[in-house]
Amino acid sequence: MSLTSGEEHPSVLARWGSAAFELTANLFYAFGFFWNVLLETFHFRSRSKVGTQVLVMQILFTGVNALFIITLIAVSLGTVIIFYGNQIPTAVSTNLVYTILITVITRELGPLLTAFIVMARSGVAIATELSSMVVTHEIEAYLAIGINPISYLVVPRFLGVTLSMIALNLYFNLSGLAASYLVAQFIHPIPASEYFSQLMAQLTPNAVSLSVVKSLIFGIVISLVSSLNGFRAQQSTTEIPVIVIRAVGQGFGLLIVVNILLTLAFAG
Amino acid sequence: MSVSSACAELREVTFHTGQCLLFENLSLSLAKDRCTVLMGPAGCGKSTILKIAAGLILPQSGSVIFDQKSWEARNEEQTIAVRAKTGFVFQNAALWANKTVRQNIELPLQFHNPQFSQAQIEERVEEAARLVGLRNVWDDRPSHLSLGEQKLVSFARAIVNDPETLFLDDPTAGLDNQLKERLLAFIEEFRRQGKTVILVTQDPSVTARVADDLAIMRDGQILVVGPIHEVVQSQDPRVVEILTSVLSQAATFSQDILGLLAEGQP
Question: Is residue B208 part of a domain?
């Protein structure tokens, strides 16, 4: 049975109206989803009798298993900054290289690159897993025994990804800054005390706050975008790659926009 | 059927997915303490009705009463309490792929009975597996099992909490005769204990064996519902056509089709 009859070609205005309506509905749905996740997060310890294991697994996958790639990128970035920083004649003498290190690693690229890695690994995994669970009716099976899928499936991922994102960002900073010191010993040896005291002088409370706030909000964005998209699957496995691609596109786009907004907000 | 004797009641329910209207203003009462079987051609909406009656999906309009209260009127705690007394076997088994067989069966117990020790949980899980005839595949993932075995695990998961109501979506599909016989015996015993079964099947031998009531569906409509011995005597040509059609898919039956359906009745 069909709800519409006959072939109809809507006008451009009707199509725009329909698209605007759909966008608005999607936005409301997304805010509703976020609100629901927040509510369930506050009740996580009391309600999710069996969700702790999922949380531990999520932290293990998102945090621990990503350490190698995070280390690689952080060390590369620290190396590159020191290498090119030392080629600027006045950089070392004017402490510019320390400003660049803190700006690039702590304030800007540290949180953003970590978020990209987490989105590419955990975001993709979450969107794929949840959409497959919808298609194979596993979500309905949770409902059938009384388990709230938001509480059991989304909240542990939300907490796991967000906590891991904050920890990974901290680890990225430590690795990048430590690697930059080690590389500096080969190019332009400096005593550790002098190097780190100069670095600490640039590490203002504003820079630390910005880094922590970015990693917190990036974690929230990644977990919500991937979960929300995962639940949008309906009935076919062919929808899964489309959903994952959409989740990654939306995730990366939102991360970039949020990064710019937070940088501007903390600039003043 | 009055509300008090109904386990689940759909009142003027309309349900559509996208542009496809499955049913409109459909009403159906499913009796308590009886086994009601929903039959009809493939794609007529039987499984959807089962899920709506079980409160797994919500209709776009109309209301669904289960155990004398609308699903929508229940808060989360009330819903969980009801879920502890119901079991659902899905058409595709719907086992959790990232869990072992044991974990699949354990989860409902762990969730509803956090006070249970691991020993109590294992005892209940093994009892449920024994009742449905599941062999020792505890540490296997569902993808390593045949569809029939997945169905058994799904059945064990549905009964592990000793439910009052069972929703069964084609529970015997993919099972060999021995396992099917074991499941049917279990359903009969379950029914004898005064519990409720709502079952979707295309298998006439299952219907003949366990049905107290029979509902015939077609194109999103309930054509007839009532005690099986009354339904199979219906003169409605659409009902006769469907019964004939369903039975013709079970090519091994040579007996009179209506007689076959009625033979399980007193």
Answer: no
Give tens-digit pLDDT for A125-137: 999 999 999 999 9
Mutate to test the interface with A, among B86, B88, B111, B219 (most CBs of A within 10 A): B111
pLDDT tens, residue by residue, B161-184: 999 999 999 998 888 888 888 889
CA-based angle A99:A105:A111, to the nearest 5? 140
Residue from B114, B163, B150, B132 nearest A137 by CA: B150
The count of domains in chain B is 1
Q: What is the average pLDDT score of chain B?
A: 86
Predicted ipTM of the assembly: 0.88
Confidence at B246, pLDDT banded by 50, 70, 90? low
- By Cβ distance, the residue of A1, A138, A146 closest to B94 is A138
Question: B204 and B234 in contact (C-beta within 8 Å)?
Answer: no
pLDDT grade, residue A48 (50/70/90)?
Answer: low
Q: Two tokens at B219? A: 């194109």
Calpha distance B112→B125 (Å, rounded):
14
DSSP state of A51: -
CA distance B142 to B147: 9
Burial classification of residue B130, based on how many CB atoms lie within 10 Å of its CB (0-12 exposed, 13-18 middle, 19 or more buried): exposed
Residues of A in Cβ contact (< 8 Å) with B165: none
Token duo for residue A161? 């990804």
Q: Say if the Cβ atoms of B111 and A50 lie within 8 Å.
A: yes
Which residues contact residue B74 at a Cβ distance below 8 angstroms, ignoring those fewer than 6 apart? B82
Residue B233 lies in a domain: no
**Averaged pLDDT for residues B123-151:** 90
> Is B58 part of a structural domain of the chain?
no
Instruction: Give A225's contacts (C-beta < 8 A, 6+ positions apart).
Output: A123, A247, A250, A251, A254
Rounded Cα–Cα distance for residues B179 and B154 (Å): 14
Q: Return the H-helix or E-strand segment holding B43.
A: none
| DSSP, residue by residue, A209-232 | HHHHHHHHHHHHHHHHHHHHHHTT
Contact A150, A51 (CB under 8 A): no
Say what the pLDDT of residue A5 is.
Answer: 47
Whether residue A50 lies within 8 A of chain B, CB to CB, comes out as yes
Domain of B119, in residue numbers: 95-163
Does B49 score more than 50 pLDDT? Answer: yes
Sheet holding B20-31, edge to edge: B20-31, B6-17, B61-66, B69-70
SS3 B201: coil
Residues 6+ apart with CB under 8 A from A60: none
What's residue B175's pLDDT?
84
Give a yes or no: residue B219 inside a domain: no
